[in-house]
Amino acid sequence: MARKISEHARSKDLVVVNLTYPPESGAKALLEPGFRTLVQRCPTPILAAPKHARDLQRALLAYDGSPKAQEALFIAAYLGGRWHIPLQIISVVESGRVAPDTLSAARQYMESHGVGATYTLVEGRVAEEILRAADEFDADLLLMGSYGRSPLLQAVLGSAVDEVLRQAQRPLLLCR
User: Fold this and answer.
1) Is the whole-model pTM more than 0.85?
2) What is the 3-state secondary structure (H, E, C) of the chain?
3) Which of 59, 102, 121, 124 has the smallest number of Cβ neighbours within 10 A?
4) Per residue in 42-66, pLDDT tens?
């Protein structure tokens, strides 16, 4: 199924998927086809929508400076600038994976495009802090880059994307 959706996505701007079955945890789940395979193969952003979605009033961008997070930053700038949606941008410092100045790069990009946002730099577990910030900001949409680690590293270290997909009660736009 992931292969067919990915093939059709080549001529599309966005793939929307009902998130009835988020990625399971565990090493075995990394090897089985499913949502993770779709995200890895799909050439366009994927909007993973839970059963219940709300009108888009506020968006939260999880930003770590990676190339995939850069794409999410571009989309967030478009949403904020074109649709005048309030944005919060969060960077989570965990085990040295995100440099403290990463958030300033996002701020500089947004300001250069005339887009306002609030910025938060926190330390902690990535998925946990993203979900906490989304609740506090009452975000209607989460934006983040997709998988940045190889499946083997995901098996050993875990995946923040998978955790957010499993726990989020709001749509998540995953950028490739």
Assistant:
1) no
2) CHHHHHHHHCCCCCEEEECCCCCCCCHHHHHCCCHHHHHHHCCCCEEEECCCCCCCCCEEEECCCCHHHHHHHHHHHHHHHHCCCCEEEEEEECCCCCCCCHHHHHHHHHHHCCCCCEEEEEECCHHHHHHHHHHHHCCCEEEEECCCCCHHHHHHHCCHHHHHHHHCCCCEEEEC
3) 124
4) 888 888 888 777 788 999 999 999 8
